[in-house]
């Protein structure tokens, strides 16, 4: 039974409020980002393409089926298929948030050729399921950017499914973060925590003068 967000009387309103908070934190520049929630009937409520995520209202959401097909009129997010992928590979996912931060964007570009962003030693690693100490390491899958969403989803699917314990976040190089959780609150905490960790990692790379040492966890 897939997770839903039953705690939200109005998922569009709750997602719009999350958008205002993420925008206020600098995580939704221009019209970047997209947000969704799994509804009780299994369909997906998602932002329409091109909406400013700091100024969302109910009209800027629409429903899509699990394969991304529009249920309501209009054009859903250009990245709808990535949301569909997440709900398909993680039955516990109830909400998905996608952000664009300066730190994550430049860090992922500095890690050219790497297929993961390894985060180690931080207290905030405890945001990840199963992590109870800072003496841990969590790797966010990192893939190259593409405008071909079916191809990007097909690339990500086996990467996510191969994880022993699914990390509820991944990064698209030079583009942005996807993070999710069983509820919208959990998804927002995951996105906020990941962006904090990426900002710390980027600061450390700058202190070290670059990310050339491939063996160094960030
Ligand atoms: C404003 S450029 C960013 C977009 O290309 C895209 O990456 C994005 O996050 C928003 O796309 P959208 O179609 O509005 O969901
Ligand atoms: Zn994006």
Describe the structure.
With 218 residues, the protein is an alpha+beta fold. The protein has a single domain, classed as L-fuculose-1-phosphate Aldolase. The chain is 33% helix and 18% strand. Strands 3-2-1-4-8-7-6-5 form an eight-stranded mixed beta sheet, with helices on both faces. Strand 1 and strand 2 form a beta hairpin. Helix 2 packs parallel to helix 4 and helix 3 crosses helix 5. The protein is globular, with a radius of gyration of 16 Å. The relative contact order is 0.17. It binds 5-S-methyl-1-O-phosphono-5-thio-D-ribulose and zinc ion. The site of 5-S-methyl-1-O-phosphono-5-thio-D-ribulose has 12 residues, from loops. Its cofactor is Zn(2+).
Q: Summary?
A:
The chain has 218 residues and is α+β, with helices and mostly antiparallel strands. The chain is 33% helix and 18% strand.
Which short descriptors sum up this protein?
single chain, alpha+beta, L-fuculose-1-phosphate Aldolase, 18% strand, globular, binds 5-S-methyl-1-O-phosphono-5-thio-D-ribulose, binds zinc ion, amino-acid biosynthesis, metal-binding, Aldolase_class_II_sugar_metab, zinc, lyase
SSE topology:
Layout: H1 11-24, E1 34-38, E2 44-47, E3 61-64, H2 80-89, E4 95-99, H3 102-110, E5 116-120, E6 137-143, H4 149-161, E7 169-172, E8 176-181, H5 184-208
Bound molecules: 5-S-methyl-1-O-phosphono-5-thio-D-ribulose and zinc ion.
5-S-methyl-1-O-phosphono-5-thio-D-ribulose binds next to loops.
Averaging pLDDT over every residue, what do you get? 94
Small molecules bound in the structure, each named once = 5-S-methyl-1-O-phosphono-5-thio-D-ribulose, zinc ion
Tell me the total number of β-strands. 8
In the CATH scheme, the class would be Alpha Beta
Strand order of the largest sheet: 3-2-1-4-8-7-6-5
Largest sheet: 8 strands, mixed
Give the SSE order as H and E letters.
HEEEHEHEEHEEH
Estimated helix fraction: 25-40%
User: Any idea what the radius of gyration is?
Assistant: 16 Å
Number of spatially distinct domains: 1
CATH level-two architecture: 3-Layer(aba) Sandwich
CATH topology: L-fuculose-1-phosphate Aldolase
| Structural class by secondary-structure content | alpha+beta
Low-confidence stretches: none
From the N-terminal CA to the C-terminal CA, the straight-line distance is: 37 Å
Spatial shape:
globular
CATH superfamily annotation? Class II aldolase/adducin N-terminal domain
């Amino acid at each position: 039974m897939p997770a839903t967000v039953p705690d939200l009387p109005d998922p569009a309103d709750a997602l719009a409020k999350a958008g205002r908070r993420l925008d206020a934190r600098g995580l939704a520049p221009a019209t970047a980002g997209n947000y969704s929630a799994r509804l009780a009937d299994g369909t997906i409520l998602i932002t329409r393409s091109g909406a400013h995520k700091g100024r969302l209202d109910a009209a800027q959401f629409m429903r899509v089926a699990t394969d991304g097909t529009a249920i309501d009129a209009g054009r859903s997010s250009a990245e709808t298929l990535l949301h569909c992928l997440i709900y398909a590979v993680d039955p516990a996912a109830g909400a998905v948030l996608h952000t664009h931060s300066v730190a994550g964007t430049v860090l992922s570009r500095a890690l050219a050729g790497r297929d993961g962003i390894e985060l180690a030693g931080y207290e905030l690693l405890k945001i990840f399921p199963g992590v109870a100490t800072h003496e841990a390491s969590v790797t966010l899958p990192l893939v190259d950017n593409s405008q071909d969403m079916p191809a990007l989803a097909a690339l990500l699917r086996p990467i996510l499914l191969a994880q022993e314990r699914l990390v509820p976040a991944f990064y698209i190089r030079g583009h942005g973060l996807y993070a999710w959780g069983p509820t919208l609150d959990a998804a927002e905490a995951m996105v906020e925590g990941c962006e904090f960790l990426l900002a710390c990692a980027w600061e450390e790379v700058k202190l070290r003068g670059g990310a050339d040492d491939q063996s160094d966890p960030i």
